[in-house]
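batch_manifest entry 22 of 60
target: XRE family transcriptional regulator
source organism: Streptomyces hoynatensis
requested by: lab member K.T.
priority: normal
notes from requester: please return tokens only, no post-processing; we will run our own comparison against the previous entry in this batch. if the run fails, retry once and flag.
--- input ---
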Amino acid sequence: MSLDRRAELGEFLRSRRARLRPEELGLADYGGRRRVPGLRREELARLAGVSVDHYVRLEQGRTLHFSEAVLDAVARALRLDAVEREHLYRLARPWPQGRPEPGRPEGEEPQRVRPGLRRLLDSAADVPAYVVGRNTDVLAWNRLAAALITDFGALPPRQRNLARLVFLDEGTRSLYADWWDKARDVAAYLRLDAGRHPGDPQTARLLEELDAASPEFRAAWAEHRLKDKTHGRYRYRHPVVGELDLGFETLRLPDDPDQALVAHTVEEGSPSETALRLLSTWAESLPVN
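--- output ---
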């Protein structure tokens, strides 16, 4: 399973057409029973102000040489948000001639975390925090993050991966009270990341592994969601301290947009703050990464 640009472009556009209803957009129905949900291709082309043939060639990936004006019009017609619009442009615009598509060639140096960022993680002793890289690889973490999620340092490097943990590890599944919400978010983040690096062989191997091993991943992936989740909340059922309701903030690193710092937050004076303090005491027994 790999992310072929042309195939992904078609699936993406069809999924976005399917979520729109003609009556909500002021379109007269052409009549007849609809075989698929959402807008027909000719309706979308009409909304975008392009010919049906032009749109069909885009959706079928017959060419990747569409102008910015056409893509803007299609994005507006599909009501794409900023993340979805970026995904469309990455899939539908030709990569500059003579340059390889973004990927990670075999044998390339592994992802690195700057020493200063590791020191920042360690200094944030009362906040669970970690750095996630390409393909949801967990690259660095502090003690409290290891105590909250899993002892990353005890895992083989290949297993320090949020997607593998969420979809394939029973302990991680039981940790999240709203596991399916977390799973859908991870799949949506992974699809967005894969669209940024369609030539990455490590991405292809990860997708093949998850597709073969997890029916839940296949279901989440089939939703064609895209999410660069910058903040939110998750509920945890921790085996040591019980339930925690934690927020999180995700900050992409300006010098390496493939890496992001994820830091959890807790409401002051809440039961979750008390539980997090207990977890912090327990975390002192864990090694620093």
